[in-house]
Amino acid sequence: MNLATSVTSVGPQHYFILGAMLFAIGATGLLLRRNAIVMFMCVELMLNAVNLTFVTFAKALDDSAGQAAVFFTLIVAAAEVAVGLAIIVAIFRRRQGVTADDIDLMKG
Amino acid sequence: MSAFVAAVSPIHVNAVLFYSFAAIAVSGALGVVLSRNPVHSALFLVMTMITMAVFFLTLDAPMVAIVQVVVYASAIVVLFLFVIMLLGIDRHESLATDARKYQRPAGAALGLLTFIGLVGVAVGNWELGPQTQSGRAISATRTNPVTGITEHDNIRPLARTLFTQFAWQFQVTAVLLVIAVVGAVVLARRSARPTSARSTSGAGAQS
Questions:
Q1: B12 and chain A: CB distance < 8 Å anywhere?
Q2: Average confidence score pLDDT of chain A
């Protein structure tokens, strides 16, 4: 497959590279941002990139197990958001801020 | 690969669709990371998630696309916005000043390294072909018993996979959700006197 064909005909690897891009942006945001809520959004971004890869594999292999895996990712993400936002609310009640650098009580 | 491409006949339309929506998704992701206001980050997150639903549609997964819009782009982001508004933490975060000196360049370098590593895996030599012998094809044709029209069905094969092969895992996620709900309630509850809550719940049980 030459370069022109690989640009015009969209295959699974295009989706993989897009997923890699979104995952890397999410990971970078998780490392750079200090606001806990924005860090959570970056985690959601990374989970979404993984979902895209799962669905691409489901299509490429014609196997619905990949789409079933998306449901499990979704459930875990929902549970994570519910508990995580509750933790953020609890921290905010005590400290009037959710900057990750301020929460260093367990620092050695 | 060829079967994947041949599923859509106008190849260039597919490419234009993919690249334009990929641009929207990536700019939305960058918006999430770079906006100073958390509310703007949440709205950029909605943009990326709805674009992702479009990708799921192009990948023959309409059920996943609908769930993506309903659960991710609606419920989860509304939860984010609700917490932002509830706590009033939509103040601007200064991206320029940072207490730790090497954090920003190190974080950016690690993100770039992640991207390079993942692309290295993605462009590897994958053996991607339809493996129909697994019996879990993503789409099935069935004749509608009422109208007699042959239609493509995505939900039935997906449900069959989810509720037969992954039935045990599905039950475990139900337990996980219950634990998460109880944990969220316990964490977010104010540690006030529980007497008033008990009296109101008792009145509700009587009525």
A1: yes
A2: 85
Please give the interface size between A and B, counted as residue pairs whose CB atoms are below 8 Å apart. Answer: 264
Sign, CA dihedral B38-B50-A6-B4, equals positive
CA distance A39 to chain B (A): 9
Residue of B106, B111, B187 with shortest CB distance to A90: B187
Q: How many residues does chain B have?
A: 207
Say what the pTM is. Answer: 0.83
CA dist., res. B50 & res. B24, Å (int): 10
Contact B188 A86 (CB under 8 A): yes
| Nearest CA-CA partner of B63 in B128, B159, B160, B131 | B159
Q: Which residue among B5, B63, B86 sits closest to A11, beta carbon to beta carbon?
A: B5
Using CB atoms, pick whichever of A12, A21, A98 lies closest to residue B89.
A98
The CB density around residue B117, as the number of other CB atoms within 10 Å, is: 12
Residues 6+ positions from B19 with CB-CB distance below 8 Å: none
Residues of A in contact with B67 (CB under 8 A): 70-71, 74
Per-residue pLDDT tens for A56-90?
A: 998 888 888 889 999 999 999 999 999 999 988 88
Rounded-to-integer distance, Cα A102 and Cα A105, Å: 8
Tell me the C-alpha distance between A95 and B63, whole Å: 42
Compute CA distances B51 → A60, B46, B92, B120, whole Å.
20, 8, 27, 25
pLDDT along chain B (207 residues), means of 10: 52 83 95 90 94 92 92 89 80 58 83 90 76 70 78 84 90 94 87 50 41
The H helix count followed by the E strand count for chain A is: 4, 0
